[in-house]
């Protein structure tokens, strides 16, 4: 992986987004949008972006959460070369309405969860119901921590069709064990435990041991915060060896020195890990993943990276 090329691509994309957004959009929102286009390997096209934003505005009501900083973010996620702006927006709203009918709130996070559904209307109800069953089981395990911020993970993990009660119970077991060995209690630790159950719904002690090793090692070398805990989960379930971890650390520190992340150093690790882990999967540097699980983990990595960066904006994901 050519670090300079990645940095140049990020700077060029950021410049194009900035030229369109001007001073009307907060810098971290612009950064989030640029990160999304780079991670998804899409070119930023201002005309396509504006068409999609107009379609969203036309469809959203006065009380819709699709406003403020979230509007341009959601626009970037929907911007597509395969669907017209109107069709992409219509499909998203259909999915989100299906999710709401199962009991999820009308919030930013129900739209983000809708983005993770398939494009087959025949499966919408089943996907939404399975996600809600898992969410409810998670809520019973962690009543205070589980909120609409967990909708996306519930949607992703629900695709594996595991027993929701067993999976939520496993998350709680990992949570308690990791909390005892140095991971801070909170939403971020819950997200890490969700990642650890993504590919396997049975307890693995070696994952707890590996997570502790990764936490101890990485935080000595980068500005690691609880919001980065899910990255440790991905490194653990992918079985990334120490040489790959060292490469990630080097890449993150390189990115953190650049102009874009100079004032957002904690976000440098978020971007670097998202880009790096996707490359690891695409280059088949980890073995034993089914094609279905491969896609699921890549979706989760993308979602987590974007959510982590976006959540640092003042109100984008509130």
Strand content: under 5%
Termini distance?
A: 35 Å
Structural class: mainly alpha
Give the fraction of residues assigned to helices.
55-70%
User: Could you state the order of secondary-structure elements as H and E?
Assistant: HHHHHHHHHHHHHHH
Number of strands: 0
Report the radius of gyration as a whole number of Å. Answer: 19 Å
Mean pLDDT: 93
Q: Count of helices?
A: 15
Can you tell me the overall shape? Answer: globular
Poorly predicted regions are none
Largest sheet: none
Characterize the structure shown.
The protein is built from 15 helices and no strands. 45% of the residues are buried. It is globular. Helix 2 runs parallel beside helix 4 (70-78), helix 7 (124-141) packs across helix 8 and helix 9 crosses helix 10 (187-196). It is mostly helical and 318 residues long. It starts with a helix and ends in an 8-residue tail after the last helix.
Which key features would you list for this structure?
about 325 residues; mainly alpha; about 0% strand; 15 helices; about 65% helix
